[in-house]
Amino acid sequence: KNEVEQSPQNLTAQEGEFITINCSYSVGISALHWLQQHPGGGIVSLFMLSSGKKKHGRLIATINIQEKHSSLHITASHPRDSAVYICAVANAGGTSYGKLTFGQGTILTVHP
Amino acid sequence: DTEVTQTPKHLVMGMTNKKSLKCEQHMGHRAMYWYKQKAKKPPELMFVYSYEKLSINESVPSRFSPECPNSSLLNLHLHALQPEDSALYLCASSQDGWDTQYFGPGTRLTVL
Predict the structure, then answer these.
(1) Pairing state of beta strands A69-74 and A59-64?
(2) Touching check for A45 and chain B: CB below 8 Å?
(3) Across the interface, do A98 and B41 touch by the CB < 8 Å criterion?
């Protein structure tokens, strides 16, 4: 079992729909990251969370440390949101300095 | 300036060639990273530099040789690569190893 599991692996939506991507992890973490990667492109960091909830524009990220679970929500989805969304955790502990463990990614396609 | 730059964007090399990838950031970040990403997979960490010193080597073959000449620059020297080393090579930086990572656009490497 991977240390970081994302669901769903693939997600198709119509423009305007509310989208949720889930991430579960099995290790102690110092922070959880949500990343976005467009086809052929570099990676953009969307959020870094260690507790609670963060919002940026139409994106909302939440984390429940006790349940080892995080969600990324996209409100009023748009075709330009089509991308791969990756959850990554920073393991707790000094030997893990700088090291992220990645989920397999969720491929999101939003149709007009 | 919140940009990480990488050169070249594309590189084609033979198995006997020696080439280098370059990464630069001017954000004053003290941690820098090299990742390898194969198609449809999440990034795999290769190396972490902290304060210009190599702090993590994820058992990367010696045909990949990293170098951090100063706090803004990170190189990856390539020698005697194999076709299976063809991938997108991503550089990233962060304020420290526990902070948000900023990714460059990557170098698409093809080994013939």
Answers:
(1) antiparallel
(2) yes
(3) no
